[in-house]
Amino acid sequence: MGCATAYFLLKADPQLQIAIVEKDATYARNSTILSDGNIRFQFNLKENIQISQFGLEMLDRFAEEMAIGDEKPDVAFRRQGDLFLADENGRAAAQQGLALQQSLGCPVQWLSPAEIAQRYPALNLQGCAGGTFGTGEGTMDPHAVLHAYKNKAVSLGARFIQAEVTALTKDQTGINGVELSSGDRLASNVVVNSAGAWVPQIAHMAGIELPIEPVMRQVFVLETSVLPQNPWPLIVFPSGLYLIQEHGNHFLCGKSLADDPVTYEDFNWNRQRFDDLLWPDLVEYLPHFDRLKVTNGWAGLYAVNTLDGNAILGEWPELSGFYLMGGFSGHGFQQCHASGRYTAELILGRPPTLDLSIFSPRRILENKPVFENKSKLV
């Protein structure tokens, strides 16, 4: 989010002086690096769909736009598609979302159980009412996307500073700078808080309390005896369990659980959690996965917006110059392109190319949530 915003700012005005402050340049606990790296059209809220449309447009020209001299980044984007399976309880919401997606020109279609079975015969479709399949959607290397934005922004003049923000400073007119762990102070009447799961900690320094919790989620790396003849899409099952084919018989698997810990410190993945909670669920949908090997795993943080599960995006109404980019609740990586452009336009006072004011922080003060279909928050 921060690096994308810096890029769009400097693209619009190369004379700007911009500092990107990062407390850990290794990004070891960064939620972008620890994400699955998926992007999809399949949301039930118009603005979220439009965010994805711009993201996919951006990815089409990403290598050229992020090139530095002759060096072009390769984000290894695989457009294998996303398949969301629905049971009878979820059919109406899925088809409502599909109608909106198609009305906006998205290449998403409804597949009947018979059509799904023909394409993916390994699936147990008992109780399945059908599914939505989005072509052009897929997964990529989030590490490569982050570094492409960072490197391009620096090449355009941004200053990269490895330090921790220890305080925000303000006066009667609004924000006026930040203090760093190095002892340095950066003076600025614009500060963008894009610290991921740490957004509420930074906001707290200004006396702002945000409804964002750092929820630890886990991803498990599986090796199976199942070798699909054709590549599988990302599959999201009605229970919320998801499966991504990495290559051959190697898969990623995860699921958001009600008792996932709220923490800033625990990044230890737990194999037993897969065995006890995810594996039985997975075998119900894919009986051949009754034999597999868990070869690896990792844990990372979702910045969960407990108000409505959607982005908090824009200037805080009670502190001029203080912009928020947080609370994306697990779908932030895919929304960095449009969010970065939108935030840059707000800062520059330009009419937004895509109006995302529905996600304004003002709704927190007014307690006016904007809900997305919860089953799509993967």
Task: Summarize the structure in words.
With 378 residues, the protein is of the alpha+beta class. It has 2 domains: 215 residues, 3-Layer(bba) Sandwich (FAD/NAD(P)-binding domain); 130 residues, D-Amino Acid Oxidase, subunit A, domain 2 (D-Amino Acid Oxidase, Chain A, domain 2, 2-Layer Sandwich). 28% of the residues lie in helices and 26% in strands. It contains 10 helices and 18 strands. An 8-stranded mixed sheet has the order 4-5-3-13-14-15-12-16, with helices on both faces. Strands 8-9-10 form a 3-stranded antiparallel sheet, with no helix packed on it. It is globular, with a radius of gyration of 21 Å. The relative contact order is 0.19. The model has no long low-confidence stretch (mean pLDDT 96).
Q: Note the overall shape.
A: globular
- The number of distinct β-strands equals 18
**What Rg, in angstroms, do the CA atoms define?**
21 Å
- The CATH class of the largest domain: Alpha Beta
CATH-level-2 architecture of the largest domain:
3-Layer(bba) Sandwich
Number of helices in the DSSP assignment: 10
Going by helix content, strand content and strand pairing, the class is alpha+beta
Q: List segments where confidence is low: pLDDT < 50 over at least 5 consecutive residues.
A: none
Instruction: Tell me the helix content.
Output: 25-40%
Give the distance, in angstroms, between the N- and C-terminal Cα atoms.
18 Å
Task: Give the full name of the CATH homologous superfamily of the largest domain.
Answer: FAD/NAD(P)-binding domain
| Assembly state (oligomeric) | single chain
Order of helices and strands: HEEHHEHEHEEHEEEEEHEEEEHEEEHH
Main pleated-sheet profile? 8 strands, mixed
Total domain units = 2
* Overall pLDDT level: 96
Query: How much β-strand is present in the residues?
Result: 25-35%
Read across the widest sheet, the strand sequence of neighbours is 4-5-3-13-14-15-12-16
Indicate the CATH topology of the largest domain: FAD/NAD(P)-binding domain
